[in-house]
């Protein structure tokens, strides 16, 4: 969620310089909509996040996030994300029954490879996801690996998905993404 595309593009550059922008974007997913078992019947579970620099040098917001990620900074960032959602979905805050905050330091402690998977040598390139399966095809017909855990690995945005798309097209006898759609 962002007011304009300019906010997203400017925010990426500002984050790269170690600064927290005054208007970062926020991303929200309704988890129960995708998987009903995520919360009790009649309720919704939402997940939201934003991007902040790994090493913060300055913050344009009066809350002054510093990278300590103490309770005050965690609450300030969560409040900011809720306010962003509220702009696009009025009444959102009134529906919140509870919230759980996972700061960058908490996420990293839970999984040090949280950015697109591990970069350990034995898990890169042809070894993704396991040795001998460095292709998007799986033993399940019509199921292709297209995540950062697939070849060629994390940090190569789009390549695993492109590989999976080409494999899916080949399985249908097509060689290019430029073919006209066919009825299934």
Please explain how this structure is put together.
With 184 residues, this protein is mainly alpha-helical. The protein folds into two domains: 5-110, no CATH class; 121-171, no CATH class. It has five helices and four strands, in the order H-E-E-H-E-E-H-H-H. The protein has a two-stranded parallel sheet. The chain starts with a helix and ends in a 13-residue tail after the last helix.
Shape: globular
Distance between the termini: 34 Å
Rg calculated over all Cα atoms: 20 Å
Q: Helices and strands: which structural class?
A: mainly alpha
How many individual β-strands?
4
| Unreliable spans | none
> How large is the share of residues in beta strands?
5-15%
Provide a concise account of the structure shown.
The chain has 2 domains: 5-110, no CATH class; 121-171, no CATH class. It is built from 5 helices and 4 strands; from the N terminus they run αββαββααα.
Notable traits:
mainly alpha; 5 helices; 184 residues; globular; two-stranded parallel ribbon; Phytoene desaturase family protein; 4 strands
Write the layout of secondary structure elements.
Elements: H1 5-16, E1 19-20, E2 27-30, H2 31-34, E3 46-49, E4 58-59, H3 71-88, H4 104-110, H5 159-171
Parallel strand pairs: 1-4
Antiparallel strand pairs: 2-3
Protein name: Phytoene desaturase family protein
């Amino acid at each position: 969620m962002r007011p304009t595309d300019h906010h997203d593009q400017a925010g990426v550059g500002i984050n790269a310089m170690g600064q927290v922008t005054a208007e970062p974007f926020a991303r929200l997913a309704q988890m129960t909509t995708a998987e009903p078992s995520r919360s009790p019947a009649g309720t919704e579970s939402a997940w939201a996040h934003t991007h902040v620099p790994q090493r913060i040098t300055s913050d344009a917001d009066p809350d002054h996030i510093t990278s300590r990620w103490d309770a005050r900074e965690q609450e300030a960032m969560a409040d900011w994300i809720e306010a962003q959602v509220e702009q696009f979905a009025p009444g959102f805050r009134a529906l919140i029954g509870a919230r759980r905050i996972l700061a960058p330091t908490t996420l990293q402690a839970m999984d040090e490879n949280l950015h697109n998977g591990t970069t350990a040598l034995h898990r890169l390139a042809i070894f993704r996801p396991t040795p001998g399966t460095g292709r998007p095809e799986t033993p399940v017909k019509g199921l292709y690996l297209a995540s950062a855990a697939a070849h060629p690995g994390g940090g190569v945005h789009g390549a695993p998905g492109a590989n999976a798309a080409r494999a899916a097209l080949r399985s249908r006898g097509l060689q290019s993404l430029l073919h006209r759609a066919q009825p299934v």
